[in-house]
């Protein structure tokens, strides 16, 4: 039996739009068969992103005021409504050919969520899915949000896990367009202080088990990122 | 020869799928693998690609319309003589 191999790449702290350019490049290369599947990790500078189902109606402050607070507002091509990304949050974006994994898109999303649920158990946090909603929830509060796009059978975007972001920034939007949704983080749940690198490595273990893949680090210099 | 452009099977399980926008018009030339329509569900943006190089013969689902898996949403014509696959 052939072992499926893929790569991971950590862009560190980066502007959302700059990271998306890299993601699109890798998507194009994946489509052309020049690279394997790859998981991109990043910690974004503060940004509010509006997905294909979203509108500015779910912004609770003007874009001008948000910009003054150092928070950019960006439209993007992922599914879903509006969300916030910022320091202390790990954004995980697999560029994955789901056909090669024999997955339908919803199966893929459920596995992605399950990877995070299994990851949370490392820190003695019980994450769950909620019927009719996506993402991962802890005690009725959302800790990880999902939003993806799929082109040519290959995924873009993914899941964002709150480790220790400034949760007050979620108060500038109606997260996911759902009123009364509360957001939480690992820090808020009083787990020991976690570094994003540690969470990334723990996630990779869980993802590899669930997707039955061997994941190696991509060489940043060779890739020219 | 005419080809049916369908809502892809990999979207199976998604609750409500709607055509968000067409990225082409009737009469446009499209290339194999080119995204010609964007559909969306609650959390997923799905780009639907042309199966062939050809001309957009007809568009069969309107923007905002709810569609289902395997539904034919457009006809792409290769412009070649031969058996019609429809």
Write the layout of secondary structure elements.
The complex is a heterodimer of chains A (225) and B (86).
Chain A: E1 4-14, H1 16-31, E2 38-44, E3 47-50, H2 63-68, E4 72-75, E5 82-85, E6 89-95, H3 105-121, E7 136-138, E8 141-151, E9 154-162, H4 196-211, E10 213-217, H5 220-223
Parallel strand pairs in A: 1-2, 1-10, 3-4
Antiparallel strand pairs in A: 2-6, 3-5, 6-9, 7-8, 8-9
Chain B: E1 2-6, E2 17-22, E3 29-30, E4 35-40, E5 44-49, E6 54-59, E7 66-67, E8 72-77
Antiparallel strand pairs in B: 1-8, 2-4, 2-7, 3-6, 4-5, 6-8
Organism (chain A): Geosporobacter subterraneus DSM 17957
Catalytic activity (chain A): octanoyl-[ACP] + L-lysyl-[protein] = N(6)-octanoyl-L-lysyl-[protein] + holo-[ACP] + H(+)
Binding site for substrate (chain A): 78-85, 145-147, 158-160
What do you see in this structure?
The complex is a heterodimer of chains A (225) and B (86). Chain A has 225 residues and is α/β, with parallel strands linked by helices. Chain A has a single domain, classed as BirA Bifunctional Protein, domain 2 (2-Layer Sandwich). Chain A is built from 5 helices and 10 strands, in the order E-H-E-E-H-E-E-E-H-E-E-E-H-E-H. The longest helix of chain A has 17 residues, at 105-121. Chain A is globular. Chain B has a single domain (2-77), classed as RNA polymerase II/Efflux pump adaptor protein, barrel-sandwich hybrid domain (OB fold (Dihydrolipoamide Acetyltransferase, E2P)), CATH 2.40.50. Chain B contains no helices and 8 strands. The N and C termini of chain B lie close together (9 Å). Mean pLDDT of chain B is 88; it is low at 81-86. The chains are: A alpha/beta (225), B mainly beta (86). Chain A binds chain B through residues 31, 51-53, 77-80, 98-99, 103-107, 109, 134, 146-153, and chain B through 8-14, 20, 33, 35, 38, 40-47, 49. Chain A: GO terms for molecular function: lipoyl(octanoyl) transferase activity.
């Amino acid at each position: 039996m052939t072992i499926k191999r893929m790569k991971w790449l950590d862009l560190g702290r980066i502007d959302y739009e700059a990271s998306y350019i890299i993601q699109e490049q890798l998507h194009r290369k994946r489509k052309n068969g020049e690279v394997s599947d790859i998981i991109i990790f990043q910690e974004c500078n503060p940004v509010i992103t509006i997905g294909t189902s979203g509108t500015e109606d779910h912004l609770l402050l003007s874009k001008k005021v948000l910009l003054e607070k150092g928070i950019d507002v960006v439209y993007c091509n992922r599914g879903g409504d509006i969300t916030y990304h910022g320091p202390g949050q790990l954004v995980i974006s697999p560029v994955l050919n789901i056909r090669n994994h024999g997955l339908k898109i919803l199966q893929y999303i459920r596995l992605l969520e399950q990877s995070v649920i299994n990851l949370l158990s490392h820190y003695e946090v019980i994450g769950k899915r909620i019927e009719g909603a996506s993402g991962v929830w802890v005690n009725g509060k959302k800790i990880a949000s999902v939003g993806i796009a799929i082109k040519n059978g290959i995924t873009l975007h993914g899941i964002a896990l709150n480790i220790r972001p400034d949760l007050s920034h979620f108060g500038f939007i109606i997260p996911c367009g759902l009123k009364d949704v509360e957001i939480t983080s690992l820090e808020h749940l009083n787990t020991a202080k976690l570094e994003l690198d540690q969470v990334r490595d723990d996630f990779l273990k869980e993802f590899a088990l669930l997707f039955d893949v061997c994941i190696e680090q991509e060489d940043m210099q060779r890739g020219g990122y | 020869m005419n080809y049916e452009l369908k809502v892809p099977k990999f979207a199976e399980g998604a609750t409500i799928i709607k055509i968000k926008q067409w990225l082409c018009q009737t009469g446009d030339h499209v290339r194999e693998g080119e995204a010609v329509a964007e559909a969306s569900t609650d959390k997923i943006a799905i780009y639907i690609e042309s199966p062939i190089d050809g001309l957009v013969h007809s568009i069969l689902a309107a923007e905002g319309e709810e569609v289902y898996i395997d539904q034919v949403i457009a006809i792409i014509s290769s412009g070649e003589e031969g058996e019609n696959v429809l």
